[in-house]
From TrEMBL:
Taxonomic superkingdom: Bacteria
Organism: Oceanobacillus locisalsi
Entry-linked PROSITE patterns: ADH_SHORT
Any GO MF annotation of the entry: oxidoreductase activity
Full protein name: SDR family NAD(P)-dependent oxidoreductase
């Protein structure tokens, strides 16, 4: 089991879904968790649930550069270091290409793509001073296997996949590892409220939908020293969904 004792971790979109379970799992492994959420009250609620001695609620809208700066400064003032960033915040839109507006696409770019970019820029200088850090980008299998009628969403996820690999090359010599997770269909509110048919688990070789804990466990591995020689890696966590078809 990965050891994250006393590691300081910032998780974006940590108030719900995959982010919430990642935060709780990391805390169970001994990490000090900075709970990032657009709504500070949501972050505070999870901080209480995790334990206020082991967590720090921070208001963080990943589309706002000033909030990134403030969040990281708050973490440094409290813990004096930042060991791990998990870029988890994201939004999903399923809409036909010809019905997708420029505004739809821009919103996806702001959250899914630029949010990750700003996160890299916000934490890397501190990690460089420490000569060590781990950045985990929670992306999607849509980066290479798009869901029908989700072109704009898939485009942002593909961009982050390449951003992750480029950052891994550039930041690796500074002691900073950058790796990515590609979740498949994970049973969260985001999936339930979309137009995806979550009842089609039979299409998945493991015959079940993914759970947030499946992502949390892989994130913990990539955050910890157990993955010390992983840099630029992409781990697919989809139960085998993208392996092919039996037709």
């Amino acid at each position: 089991m990965p050891n994250l004792k006393d590691q300081v971790v910032l998780i974006t979109g940590a108030n719900r879904g995959q982010g919430k379970d990642i935060a709780k799992h990391f805390a169970s492994l001994g990490a000090k968790v900075a709970v990032g959420a657009r709504n500070l009250e949501d972050a505070e609620a999870l901080s209480v649930e995790i334990g206020q001695h082991q967590s720090l609620p921070v208001q963080l809208d990943v589309t706002k550069e000033a909030e990134w700066t403030t969040a990281v400064q708050s973490i440094m003032q409290t813990y004096h270091k930042i060991d791990v960033l998990v870029n988890n915040a994201g939004i999903f839109t399923k809409k036909p290409l010809l019905d997708t507006t420029v505004e739809d696409f821009q919103q996806l770019i702001q959250v899914n793509q630029l949010g990750v970019f700003m996160g890299l820029q916000a934490v890397a200088p501190y990690m460089e001073k420490q000569q060590k850090g781990s950045i985990v980008n929670n992306i999607s299998i849509s980066a290479f296997a798009p869901i029908n009628e989700s072109a704009a969403y898939a485009a942002t996820k593909a961009a982050v996949s390449n951003l992750s690999k480029s950052a891994a090359m550039e930041l690796g010599p500074k002691g900073i590892r950058v790796n990515a997770i590609h979740p498949g269909v994970i049973e969260t509110n985001m999936v339930s409220s979309s137009n995806l048919n979550v009842n089609e688990a039979e299409a998945i070789p493991l015959k079940r939908l993914g759970q947030s804990k499946d992502i949390a466990q892989v994130a913990a591995f990539l955050a910890s020293d157990e993955s010390a020689y992983c840099n630029g890696a992409e781990i697919v966590v989809d139960g085998g969904l993208t392996l092919g078809t039996d037709v």
